[in-house]
Specification:
Length: about 400
């Protein structure tokens, strides 16, 4: 356990206008404002067309919303009829896959909201761009929205917000040239209910736009002692933009000495980018410990967070679980040929030497790249998705 203390600097609120200005370049082309909307260019009139897919308009077509005469709200709307919340949600039966959206481009998805019931680890999101058959996003719905421990945790970040009671929101921009298809598979033994809305614009997409990718992994036991692989097998050109990590520790004591490593463009034994500790990478320090309570201090900020600790009133105990995110929005990791990302599972032995830990670890890697992408490793089975 680290014992040194650093003098704390005051934490000041971030100006969201300045934040938006840093994130977004002013658009010269009116269509670009529709693809890159933010406070920096909200004043700019755009030729983009706004559309939205939901159970009230499965196709997103212009003038076709709220036309349902049958749906999950049929009984409640029985006295009022068409146009009065007849189809606000969908039911997805056990063992089936439902297509949430199938959108013709070019365009860009800007925001996704959903509130799924059921087992979040057994509900698998998949995104397909253009005419690809191998998903560019394959991930349990909870982990995709930085809630991989199966319980609600409020997230206040730029890319993902999770709000009461279980509202998942995503703001990653997702451009596509020809087509976007999004599905949700229910692996559970029970049916689930899903309310959702996918907001997007139809507009010309630049030729150099990368496609959004997200890959889930889960290892227990670790395939290599003390080492977890977040991502490998990526080939092409793009940038890495975020990590979500959920883990359960099986050793008492501090568990986060491990370094994250980014192997770029042919790196072999040694990486180009090497971190200094797990809590350091997730923008914290000194074990995430509150030095007044001597407990873990959960936090959620625009770029990074330790959003959840379970149980929250314990510290340095075996069996505790942790949920962390780190978005590389202002510091994306660029690669030109290939990319591999690893994280050491490293704690302490009683004699002050490092312990290669045997933690139960899962993650989601987020990145953009030019297509085609390499096929993802096979998703873990339903039993393998669960915690051990």
């Amino acid at each position: 356990m680290k014992t040194m203390l650093k003098t704390r600097r005051p934490i000041f609120p971030i100006s969201f206008g300045l934040l938006a200005a840093r994130m977004l370049l002013s658009a010269a082309d009116p269509a670009d404002a529709g693809l890159n909307a933010g406070l920096a260019n909200l004043y700019q009139v755009s030729s983009a067309e706004s559309r939205s897919v939901s159970p009230e308009n499965f196709t997103g077509e212009k003038g076709k919303g709220g036309m349902a005469t049958n749906g999950t709200g049929s009984h409640a709307a029985g006295e009022l009829g068409q146009g009065w919340k007849v189809s606000p949600s969908v039911g997805i039966k056990a063992g089936t896959t439902f297509t949430l959206a199938e959108i013709k481009g070019p365009g860009c998805i800007h925001q996704i909201w959903m509130t799924p019931t059921g087992n979040w680890r057994h509900s698998i999101l998949r995104f397909y761009w253009d005419d690809e058959t191998n998903a560019s996003v394959e991930c349990p719905v909870g982990d995709f929205f930085a809630c991989g421990l199966g319980q609600y945790a409020q997230i206040n970040s730029l890319a993902v917000c999770v709000n009461p009671g279980s509202a998942f929101n995503c703001y990653w921009p997702m451009p596509f040239h020809k087509k976007a298809r999004i599905t949700l598979e229910n692996l559970d033994d029970k049916g689930m209910t899903l309310y959702y809305q996918i907001n997007y614009t139809l507009a010309t997409v630049p030729k150099d736009a990368g496609y959004f990718h997200a890959q889930f992994r889960h290892e227990y036991p670790l395939k290599t002692k003390g080492l977890y692989t977040i991502l490998d097998g990526v080939e092409g050109e793009g940038q890495y933009v975020g990590t979500y990590l959920a883990l359960k520790v099986h050793d008492a004591g501090w568990w986060g000495e491990g370094e994250i490593k980014f192997y770029l463009d042919g790196d072999q034994e040694f990486p180009t980018i090497c971190g200094t500790g797990t809590e350091d990478y997730f923008c914290g320090s000194y074990n995430f410990e509150n030095h007044d309570t001597h407990k873990y201090q959960a936090f959620s900020t625009p770029y990074a967070g330790l959003a959840q600790v379970l149980p929250p009133d314990k510290v340095y105990e075996a069996g505790q679980r942790f949920s962390l995110y780190r978005w590389h929005i202002t510091d994306p990791v660029h690669f030109r040929k290939d990319l591999k990302v690893t994280l050491q599972a490293l704690g302490w032995k009683s004699g002050g030497t490092y312990l290669q830990a045997d933690s139960d670890m899962s993650s989601v890697a987020f990145w953009y790249q030019k297509e085609p992408h390499q096929k993802f490793p096979k998703l873990p089975s339903r039993d393998e998705l669960d915690w051990h």
